[in-house]
Design a protein that fits this description.
Length: 430
């Protein structure tokens, strides 16, 4: 099984290829899995070979490709492939393939292997909008998800021919993120992903704000948004209804999540407060919000003038969004003890100084801000934009309750594990 620090490293991944035109994009998925250290076997349906030939899959995976249960009968390959897999990824999944998977058909190597698999399963659909929205497909997807299978939402955009709409295959990066999330998510029997956030509304902020100086220049920070996007992805994998508020994030939106793009700290604050008004079950403030913004923005580009020195830049404090959210929740609870029960998680990107360590800074912040959890990022070694992270999770008293290191998906699930322990039960009528 894969190492906790790199979910795909050493993982035995079975990739099923459905018979749709998007099959050519699956080559990027296979290449990405192999590059991440996975041992990949490709199982195409016979129809998919009309789009991409067997030689392509054998070259990319470095394994022989089988399509029929009557191949390698002496090794009982249709049983062995499913039994040995740590992860099954099916891309693209056509409407026909979804129907056969839902019914438990075993009429080719892929569907037979899927019946044998007791590992997490990630399905990436691709088809025309009318097929995706047909009641039969909607029912099939719901049934598969009820079994704990991760069925991604297709992307929207140009389809085959002149048509556009929902039904495009999600981008390869999003599918690979879903594969990592499935391998690291808590799992119950038979490989089903534990969907312990079903019925929960989750808001996640990600990225770094930009504060305009003039039409050309701005103040910013180094945050890429990767940890916030990973948190949104992990929450969606665990069944949550996710809204991602992204500040200057150049990353794919997790499948199924709603996205709101913002630029400045003021825009982020407005979007967060609007989202908070809907009383989500969880707010995760992973974005790096500027502490200061220019007191005024020049309408035209500021020019150099002769040998004059640099112009003075007057800064003012931005709103402390995390503190305001906690304060608003306290006021709600004072007015109505049954209100404002959602959890709030903050992030603290800290470096040490001559007298105080990053942990001491984070402990002081945890006590002063009052969030339910505060996730400490020691950024003195440079984690911005990296695939890995190392965090310590503090409670409101500043005590360490958990630690995590490794892939940002792994870190995300550790954070969500702590959240789930603190969430009130979902009402029966939710």
């Amino acid at each position: 099984m894969s190492d906790a620090a790199a979910p795909l490293q050493g993982a035995r991944v079975l990739v099923g290829i459905g018979g749709g035109i998007a099959a050519y994009k699956a080559a990027h998925i296979v290449r990405g899995l192999v590059a991440s250290g996975a041992e990949v076997r490709v199982v195409p349906t016979p129809a998919s070979l009309e789009f991409v030939g067997r030689a392509t899959w054998e070259a990319l995976s470095h394994h022989r490709v089988l399509t029929s249960v009557f191949e390698d009968v002496d090794e009982v390959a249709h049983v062995r492939h499913g039994q040995e897999a740590d992860l099954l990824v099916i891309v693209p999944a056509t409407a026909d393939l979804l129907a056969r998977l839902r019914m438990g058909r075993a009429d080719d190597m892929l569907t037979a292997s899927a019946l044998m698999a007791r590992c997490p399963v990630v399905i990436a659909p691709a088809m025309h909008t009318e097929m995706w929205q047909h009641p039969a497909t909607v029912e099939n997807v719901a049934a598969l998800r009820d079994r704990g299978i991760t069925v991604l939402e297709p992307a929207s955009g140009r389809l085959t021919g002149p048509d556009s709409g929902p039904g495009r295959l999600p981008e390869p990066a999003a599918i690979l993120d879903a594969a990592r999330a499935a391998l690291t998510a808590p799992r119950v029997e038979d490989g089903a992903v534990l969907r312990d956030l079903v019925g929960r509304r989750v808001v996640v902020t990600a990225g770094g704000t930009r504060e305009a100086i003039d039409p050309v220049r701005f103040l910013a920070n180094r945050s890429s948004g990767r940890q916030g996007v990973a948190l949104a992805h992990a929450a969606a994998a665990r069944g949550a209804d996710v809204t991602l508020i992204a500040a200057n994030v150049d990353l794919e939106t997790p499948p199924g999540a709603r996205r709101i793009d913002v630029e400045s700290a003021a825009q982020l604050a407005a979007a967060v407060h609007e989202a908070a008004a809907a009383a989500p079950d969880l707010l995760i403030m992973a974005a790096a919000v500027a502490d200061f913004t220019p007191a005024s923005r020049a309408e035209a580009k500021i020019k150099k003038s002769g040998d004059d020195g640099a112009p003075a830049l007057e800064l003012v404090r931005t709103q402390d969004i995390l503190r305001t959210l906690v304060s608003d929740r306290t006021a709600l609870r004072d007015a109505d003890p049954g209100a404002g029960t959602g959890l709030i998680v903050g992030f603290a990107a800290e470096t040490g100084d001559a007298s105080t360590s990053p942990l001491e800074h984070a402990r002081a912040k945890a006590r002063s801000k009052g969030a339910d959890l505060l996730v400490l990022n020691d950024v003195s070694t440079g984690v911005f934009g990296a695939a890995d992270n190392a965090v310590r999770i503090l409670d409101a008293a500043g005590e360490i309750v958990a630690e995590a290191a490794g892939d940002k998906t792994v870190v995300s699930h550790t954070v969500l594990d702590e959240v789930v322990r603190r969430l009130a039960p979902v009402p029966w009528d939710a």
